[in-house]
Fold each of these.
Amino acid sequence: MSETTNILVVGIGGQGVMTATEILAEAAIALGHDVKKTEVAGMAQRGGVVSSHLRFGQRVLSPQITPGTADLLLAFEPAEGMRWRHMLRPSGQALMNVGRLTPPVVDLGLYDYPADPIAAVRAAGTRVVAFDATSIAVKLGEIRLGNTVMLGAISAYLPFSADVLEAAVLKRFAARKPALLELNRQAFAAGRAAAEQAAAHNTDSAREAAVPA
């Protein structure tokens, strides 16, 4: 990664995109980074598309990530991940939830939902770690845990320890919803494990493809 870390978080309103970005920012601030972030929400509370830009480092002048410079793309919804793929640098990493949540523009007939957005992102040459954060959250008994699952997934790709990010997650819920502390701890661990498993599968598949027939 560059001296400044650029993270783009995208999804649909109600998935916790902004909350996840805020927690990532709080973790970076706790380590003394200069942090800038900005959000664009289209009818966020009604299921509209949401994108959050987060930049942190020794000194950051602008919150806006320019196309082709994002280090990480955290996509809560696969079609949104595909739509924002162009923001990644060539060596960037996409982490994508496979759970689909159709945005209103599709229902209105303004946009055709892609047949396989994750395959399309991979076909464009982007490194992708894909996992089902939605199903993990549902199995834990609360679909709103999806944003903590996503944070667990990205924790291995940050320029600081996963423990720092987990502490920021738990601090948020300790103050607001202490009863959900253990569930969020489990969600974070499950997201991290799911991303590690998906990355290992990608490595195994690449090795198999490289073996001569």
Note: The first helix runs from residue 17 to 30.
Amino acid sequence: MHALNRRTAITGLLAATLSVTLLGGTSQAAAVGLDDPAKKEIAMKLVSSAENSSLDWKAQYKYIEDIGDGRGYTAGIIGFCSGTGDMLDLVEYYTQVKPGNILAKYLPALRKVDGTDSHTGLGSAFERDWATAAKDSTFQQAQNHERDRVYFNPAVSQGKADGLRALGQFAYYDAIVMHGNGGDPTSFGSIRKRALAKAKTPAQGGDETTYLNAFLDARKWAMQQEEAHSDTSRVDTAQRVFLKAKNFDLNPPLKWKVYGDSFSINS
């Protein structure tokens, strides 16, 4: 989890061991981006398996708890945090598209606690109302909208600009989810700059494997700067495994284990 501008989706399983076994090589067909609907679904499941021990990422709309990381509440499909601003942005957007919703009354409190781990004005009532709101398709769509606006779309756009295929775009997405895209040394932008100091992107004429290894090295360094991320297995035994297999397109079937649990995506 990055400094207070970071948007976290981690739910407290960071100390466990992640091991992944990947089946299936790269396809000879033309590569598609991570924003292809089927690839995006794979990305959502991969992230959810690590962060929620489940492939059912849509079940996380209702998720909310304080995981004790100093960022207040962590909630929803991407770990919107009351202390980092993205939960406030989400509820503001939800209220824009559905005025008078059940969470709108918490906007003053969310503005006050932004930047802190305080629950003042929130608490158990907010937790219950969040779970209620999660049943509303408009709130679910709002979560999807903010996930894409803040995390997914910027990651995919930068990945495509750098000449990366779906795996590289996923590496960017996973990094921006965990570290945010602010200006601190462990943010996504800073991670990418560290990688660029070591290797060229494919768009610059570099080798895709070499560049992605440099990016994952930089990502690992960023994770090690904070105790909560000292377990770097999601890089070491997940994304590195995909890269070693040269599955640049994240083609199924995929089989892997996360924190001792087995998962698979067959198609």
Note: The first strand starts at residue 18 and ends at 22.
Amino acid sequence: MKVLSVFAIYLVLFSQMLDTSVANVALINIAADLALDTFYASLIMTSIGTGLVISFPLGNLLTRKLANNAVFILGALIFLVSSLLCGLANDVYSFILFRFMQGLSAGMAVVTSFSLMTVTLGKERQALAIALCTSAISLAPVFGPFVGAYITDMLGWRWLFFINVPLITISLLILLPKLETTLSKDKFDYGPLITLSIFGLSIAAFQYCLDFGEKYGWFTDLRIQGGCLLGVLFLAFFLLSNQRWMLVDFSLLRNAQFRTSTFILCIGNGVIFSSIVILPIWLRMDKSYTILQAGMILSISSVIAAILSPLIGRHVKTQYYVWISCLSLLLMAISFYMMSQFKLNTSETTIVISRIIAGLSLATFTAPLLSLSLEKLEQSEVTSANSLSLILRIFSANLFTSLSFIFYKKLTLQNEGEYISKLDRLTLVYMQDTNNQVYHSFSIFRTNALAEMFLYVALFFLLSSVAITVLRRQQSELPASAK
């Protein structure tokens, strides 16, 4: 039956996208079981992101040799196995590897799901096929934090990954008898695949240095030195090879409107994603919220965005996207400014209001900026531009997640040092004998660190709204021949 096949495809895509956000609120639990300091828990999120950066172009390459069905099945099988291994992992290094495999396989499903859903429903129902796939990709992050919190609270964090095994298995049992997995008769060129593999190794090397740099003492450690050297060499090889295979078209960045809009979109996406990784840690550690409370607060903005985004996309005309983008950036600046004022005694109502404003901003954040970035490009360049934008956005999310943990710890220790330097010896002795006082002080240090980081982010979004306005005014003043 078509209904079962559609359901199976939707379930595979939804479960894979769900895993990109389901672990956000469970970072403390996962880090504790894997003997990992919470301040180094960024790699729990960046490992799957690194796999995703590579998987999108990899999926496209594989479809040149394998049928879309085969690539989809391959991705689902790798995701099933890697999910099981994530749940069984007892050390941080194996867990990172299996999370990377999850990301590597998830992108294959995204790349092939649209065509697979269209074939299943029939070309005459292509609009419905696209809507269903988009729904799975959009709704998974909405439910991720709350689902992750509920499963962790009821069954433990390992079931965040075990739950994928029966879901994917059922889906494959439905799909396998009906899918053809033929090979293309065309000769496959392995040059692009090798080039892409080198690109993946470069990304992985740099991400390793970011995630483990502070732990090992940065460039004083041979592992970090070697990782940076390999990253540079792999990147140089990729850039040279890319000139021949053109897997990623960096020349698009010469267009000022694409460059500026993409820069704001990528940096904004990075800081937003990193904030929803850091925020639940603060809520649980310093506000003493339960994992379910943290999950619900985190989900508020995503729910609002999921409801409003389709309505805005349907009813707002593209000529108003510039002002919609400015409004979105201003709302995000207000949200982050409110979060920069958080204290240990901040009420839950204030926290919820800040997330509601963030949700209103998210509803109008990606689509208008993406539309503006593509506006001045030729139609033949749109696909390459979308691919480049997506890769940069995922890479930015990884980068800022790692950086946020680094600066969170650095600012916390800096606040601690400034506080201790002002205390006399007798007070220090008293604090050492009073664990509650010490714990409360560290909560203050972490809260101040969080507030300082969010204040800088608020300033970025405020300046970005100005930059979009200035850029648009400059574009409108150009003569028609220059446009």
Note: The chain has a mean pLDDT of 83.
Amino acid sequence: MTWRAAPYLAVTGALGFGWFVVLSVALPVSLTLTVVWVGVPLTMAAILMWRGGAMLERRLMHAALGVRIADPYRPRPERGLGAHLRWLLADSATWQDLGYLLMLLPLGLVETAVSLVVWTTSAMLLIQPILMSLWVAGVHSDLTIDSWAGSFVAAAFGLLVLVMAAYLVRGMAWLHGTLATVLLGGSQEERLRASRARGIDAAEAERRRIERDLHDGAQQRLLSVAVDLGRAQSKFDSEPEEARLLIAQAHAGTKAAIGELRNLARGIHPAILSDRGLDAALSGLAARAPVRVDVSVELEERPPAAVESIAYFIVAETLANMAKHSGASEASVMVVRDHRGVVVDVWDDGIGGAAMVPGGGLSGLADRAATIDGVLVLHSPLGGPTLVRAELPCEW
């Protein structure tokens, strides 16, 4: 992430200055002209312009800093100039976008200045032996160190400055990404509203999946069993051997249907979770994982069933993703209670790079958590480690 973030941080000052100039011209002009009709479309154009700039910044955050920020805007109305204007003005994300672009000037100037100073200082110190060789060869240079020993000491110090610069860039990238997430990610209320809507959609999709599995699986098998038993009943007196075969076939179909129903019920809510609680259920998941997983459940009382179920499936899906993609050698699961509810942390030492993509497993977990106003947070920089944290509000 360091070498991807360095070029971005070096030019944030220019980006911030450019947006400041554009906005300082566009906003006064469009607002002044609102006294006549032309000011309204100009104002909408200005708002759409800075929204577009904020959307570009979100993409740059992902490309340069590895921070994924979803667009938090409300759905756009179908038609009507007034409806579109209210849509733009009433969305808190619009004004947070403006705040971020205005903040980009002072923040970017500091980042650019610091970046230029540390990288230039490091480069000048590292090339002192080269300048020394040019001076010995009689070539003009601005050399200020007149001995080989001094030049190599300077180069060694330059290497130290280079390492410090890399850590400094990582720190500035983290701070910039955090501020961008707060401002460009929308308000907590907006995120919860959008997440809750996705959770409702996910619950509806799950309901349809269960109906489909029942219809295509157990229901068809039970229908076949009923047909076999009806045929056996009609042949019981006239053809007892064939009736016996039909009964045996119906018996096998019944066992298969029971197996499918058991698997379906396990996917909805595992029995061990209901009987013995989260500690035992999560320990069972850890025992089946391909790597060592430490489990710690620090709950004095059992939370509500809905919270237990969501916590269980978050851990199950996260451990499954870890086994498939992370290349981890160890992991840990911690469940604790804080003043808001239950906090579930799943950590692994894998290669990182995990992301919430629409329709993906982690996005589905966030949707599941949203059904109870919970929040799922992912931290997975390239190179690892990965941390998935779920905050599930509840009351005992």
Note: The radius of gyration is 31 Å.
